[in-house]
Fold this sequence. Notes:
This protein is mostly helical. The protein is built from 8 helices and 3 strands, in the order H-H-H-H-H-H-E-E-E-H-H. The chain has helices at residues 2-16, 38-65, 69-74, 76-94, 110-119, 122-134, 184-187, 194-205; strands at 140-147, 152-159, 168-174. A 3-stranded antiparallel β-sheet has the order 2-1-3. The longest helix has 28 residues, at 38-65. The protein is globular, with a radius of gyration of 20 Å. The N and C termini lie far apart (54 Å).
Amino acid sequence: MLSIARNSLRHTINRMFVARSAHQVEWTFQALEPHISEQIMKLHYTKHHQTYVNGLNAAEEAYAKTPSTKEKIALQSALKFNGGGHINHSLFWKNLSPVNEDGGKLSQGPLKDALERDFGSVDEFKKRFNAATAAIQGSGWGWLGYNPATQKLEIVTTPNQDPLISHAPIIGVDIWEHAFYLQYLNAIWNVINFKEAEHRFLEAAE
C-alpha cells in the first residue's frame, strides 16, 4: 500500500515538471548585421542560451523527482545558474531589434527624459554603461535598471548568470561571450530595442 502511494506521488510530481524552451526570437539571426554578425547571434542563441535551458530543465526535473532534502539543496546552484541564464537571455532577445524595425532609435519620451535626468545625456549613459560592463572580469551582465527606492535609473552589473534582483531590469547586455569582439559593446547600441526598454521602464515606474 505504501509503495503504491509513493508511486502515485512520484507520478504526480513528474507531471508537475514542465520543460522550458528558449524564447522565440522575432527576427532572423542575420537581421542585426552589419552591427552584430549572424554567426555571433546564431551561436549565442542555439548554443549558449540552449545550454542554460537544457541545464535548467535537467535541474528542475531532478528537483521535482528527488525526495531528498540534501539533494534538493545540492541542486540550488544549478537552478540559480541555469535559471538565471535562461531568464537573462529571454530578456536579452527582447532587448534587440533590427535597424529597419527602429533598432537603436530612442525617440523623445519618458525613457529618454529619465536617462537625461539621471546621467546628463544619452551619450553619457552609453559611455558609463560601456565602461562598467567592459570592466567585468569573466562572465557577467551589464544592466540599466530602475531602482524603486531612489526612483532613478542606475547602471548595475551582476556576475555569472545572476539575474538582476535589486532593480527592475530595463536593458540587459550579456558580456562574457562577446566582450572581446571589437564590434560588440559599441555596435550593440545600434540594435537596442528602446521601445521595449521604455515599456519596461514605464511598468517599473508605476
